[in-house]
Design goal:
33% of the residues lie in helices and 21% in strands. It has helices spanning 2-8, 56-65, 82-89, 101-111, 117-122, and strands at 11-16, 27-31, 43-48, 71-76, 96-99.
Length: 128
């Protein structure tokens, strides 16, 4: 679902990483040329289909896995702890964008992307 959502909202070069080699990164993508000032900026996303809170440790681990000059994002079906939010926004560190389940639902709704039954039943991160 996340791979399709990124493509649907204008991202290009959207690739799901291999599980054994991902270093915590689940999807690599780039903004399209419509976002021309940042079109070459690599975006690295970690997907968390969790019921419990995503904490500070997960944010710090993602930051440590990012390629140089990449932007990081964690997308979860759950929510983030206060410590995770503070870690993501901490001054002097690469900021990490956090998207919780409510925000994700809003993005899907706003994008007018139709969810296929397979997305609902099988997964958050798809492979082609």
């Amino acid at each position: 679902m996340l791979q399709d959502l990124l493509k649907h909202t204008g991202f290009v070069d959207v690739l799901v990483t291999r599980f054994s080699q991902d270093g915590g990164i689940d999807i690599n993508a780039r903004p399209s040329s419509r976002a021309w000032p940042i079109q070459r900026l690599p975006i690295q996303i970690q997907a968390k289909r969790w019921l419990h809170t995503v904490g500070r440790r997960e944010v710090a681990e993602l930051r440590g896995s990012l390629q140089p000059h990449a932007a990081g994002c964690i997308v979860t079906t759950s929510h983030f702890s206060r410590a995770a939010i503070a870690e993501a926004e901490e001054s002097g560190k690469v900021p990490i964008t956090l998207i919780d389940g409510y925000q994700l639902a809003g993005i899907v709704n706003h994008s007018k992307m139709l969810l296929h039954p397979a997305h609902v039943a099988t997964g958050f991160v798809d492979e082609d």
